[in-house]
Amino acid sequence: EPEPPATRGEECPWDSGDLDLELLQHAPRSEEAAQLSRRVLLRGLLRRQRLGMESDVPTVVRLWALGRWAQCRDAMLISEAFAFATGCWGALQEARANAGWPGEGGAAEGTEEEEDEAPDWPAQEEALFGMFAELEFWRLQPRDLLSPWVPPQLLACHLAARCRQLDEHQQSLFQDSCDNLKEINRLRHLISQLSAKLEVVDVRSVQSTQKQTEVVDTLRTLR
Question: N or C: fewer beta carbons within 10 Å in the chain?
Answer without folding.
Answer: N
